[in-house]
Amino acid sequence: MAAAEAAGTIPPLSTRLPPDRLELAPLAAEDIRAPGIRQPRNPISRSRIEVVISRSVAGVAVVFSLQALPAMLQQIPLRLPVMGVAMPVALALAVAAVVVASITKVGVRITTGAVAVVYLAALIGWPFLMRDPGAVLDGKPWLWYVCTVATSCAAISFPLGWACAYTFAAPLAYGIVRSLPSGGDADALLASLDAAYATLLGQVLLIMIFMLRQTAGSVDAAQTNALNKYATAVRQHATEVERVQVDSIVHDSVLATFLAAAADGSPKAAQLASGMATDALKRLTDAASTPAVDDSTVSFSELAGLIRLAASRLARPFTIVECSIPRLAVPAHVSDAILAASVQAMANSVQHAWAGLGTPDPERLLTMSANSQGGCTIAISDTGVGFDPALVPSERLGLRISIAERVQSVGGFVTVCSTPGQGTTITIEWPKDGGVNP
Question: Which of 92, 203, 274, 364 has the most CB atoms less than 10 A away?
């Protein structure tokens, strides 16, 4: 067999191995950290608009509440003892809750709805909670100063129809109270003007909030659609790149096998070449029937098992250190890319790390674990000969294409660290951005 191989009648060892053990390309000795495919950050979004609106209304509520404070203190003696304090305190607590919710981004709709409800209840109960309902109030009720705050809170909290109704109901209720003795006994014209002013201001704020929400929602929808199309295009491109690489490998294997079969000098060599060609053609057929886009997912434990199985089939042993990630699952195309890149890295270590006859075989380590980004990390290292990245010709594209570009196409990146005489470490990182967490 050795003589036949030396004579060129039998393909060398690398062409006799099945594709999952082939050396796909020579090791390119360069450090590569290819950034993954990152989605652009939203310049504007519904969530950000909601934060801006809630904090703006909270600030206005504080200012208007302070503006109402002098009138409220002046009118407390005219109110019934309990309600003269309970009503302002309840409204103040509701406004304070809106401020806290706008800062923490939690419970904004609930707290703003509470302000709107408490204000409307205070407005309706105003005439019935005076010490002397017949006495004419000097000036406006202090609730006037927070009418805009209440209509703004209703615009944030309520659905559009209810918010629109509130911006009419609250000013109308105020206009009625304003015309009563307990509200200052204003004439019909003045009460109507106050109510119309509050209604117009409330409607303007409601329209602004609604338009901002609608615009932000449209931007989010358009951007999400664009990102989905982009992700699909990237996956299809990555799949096509992978298909071309696999087809090239299998084509070269088939061609080399047929040439060996044509030049064989023994029946055993011919039988071996024929078997290799049959296996390569079967793999070619399987690759051609693989769908371009696959939405299925693969658990990390299953991916780790495939990498572990591939390591066991190589000509040199690897020490395997594996940390499970129970909740992590990755898309099938990501799993394929990580598996292929890992096999390529291990095959490179098997072929290139050994210094040659008379030297011990280096130690090889395969580590599979979680990373700080919530994804997974595959590290292949050895204590072999290493290399100097600065001395490798730029045309050596094996590592860049076979490993780094393959991982980059699915959102990951690769780091290669190597020093002559001190071994090599290839680290494949895949972040959580593209992961699926059940």
Answer: 364
CB atoms < 10 A from the CB of 391, how many?
Answer: 9
Computed over its alpha carbons, how large is the radius of gyration of the chain? 37
Q: 203-232 pLDDT, tens per residue?
A: 999 999 999 888 888 888 888 888 888 878
| Choice between 19 and 155, residue whose per-residue pLDDT is larger | 155
129 pLDDT tier (thresholds 50, 70, 90): confident
Q: Which of 32, 426, 408 is closest to 241 using CA atoms? A: 408
Q: Roughly what angle, to the nearest 10 degrees, separates helices 300-313 and 332-352? A: 30
- pTM for this structure? 0.48
Pull the structure tokens for residue 400: 């860049």
Q: What is the DSSP letter of 21?
A: G
8 A C-beta contact, residue 92 and residue 146 = no
Q: Could you give the CA distance from residue 343 to residue 362 in angstroms, rounded to a whole number?
A: 18
Q: Which has the higher per-residue pLDDT, 302 or 26?
A: 302
Dihedral sign (CA 144, 148, 151, 153) = negative
By the 10 Å C-beta count (0-12 exposed, 13-18 middle, 19+ buried), 102 is classed as buried
Q: What's the whole-number mean pLDDT along residues 96-107?
A: 92
Two tokens at 181? Answer: 């003795």
The conformational region for residue 186 under phi > 0 = left, psi -120 to 50 = alpha, else beta, is: beta
Which of the four pLDDT bands, split at 50, 70 and 90, describes residue 16?
very low
Per DSSP, helices labelled H in 289-364 are: 300-313, 332-352
- DSSP helix/strand/coil, 365: strand
Please tell me the distance from the alpha carbon of residue 240 to that of residue 333, in angstroms, as a whole number.
11
Q: Which residues contact residue 348 at a Cβ distance below 8 angstroms, ignoring those fewer than 6 apart? A: 23, 27, 398, 399, 426
Q: Which residues contact 26 (CB under 8 A, 6 or more apart)?
A: 352, 396, 398
Q: Going along 203-359, which residue ranges are E strands?
A: 297-299, 319-322, 329-331
